[in-house]
Amino acid sequence: MSKIVLYWHPMSSATPVACALAELDVPHERVKIDITTGEQRRPDFLALNPNGKVPTLTVDGAPMFEAVAIEMWLGETYGVKSGLWPAEGTPERLQAMAWSTWSYVTYGAQLVRLQAARDMGTPDDAHGTAGHKGMDELLGLLDARLAKQPWMLGEAYSLVDLIVGSVIGYSVYIGAPVQKHPHVLAWLGKVQARPSMQIDA
Hints:
Layout lengths: L3 E5 L6 H10 L4 E4 L10 H4 L9 E4 L2 E4 L1 H16 L8 H14 L1 H14 L6 H23 L10 H15 L8 H11 L9
Parallel strand pairs: 1-2
Antiparallel strand pairs: 1-3, 3-4
């Protein structure tokens, strides 16, 4: 088995990756990078991730970064056998890739707008209002999907639920109107209740 090392910091964007490793029961080593003291800018870490951010994952010494890329790789590599990621060549695999990316890119873009407005102390300005409205519309799309099925890909929980749920869960803390979407709210509660989501990361 490959030697996997996760470079992480508690309560950061590395947390969903740590949760995915736990859900998949993948043996790995964790190396804490203290982003509060600037460890992410050390030359040895920048050699692994030139962005100077966590998460970073190495596989037998070869690095990769960006949480959603790591999560999808983990799904493809370890999740198919356990039933937590759809097999290659199936319609479900296409949906898994699409919704995982949607959460970080499409929904994430609106999340960033609202986060930036809140950080500047202007959550009700044009950017904050537009971000809130955009998130509400996208949550409506997600709610319609979850009204038809209990989990992102159908009748069974998958790593896609963890991936999308991690982003939606974070967005709650910055004011996303998740409570307006009952199917999303109920689904998110189920995702967050899983043992893998309780890890100290």
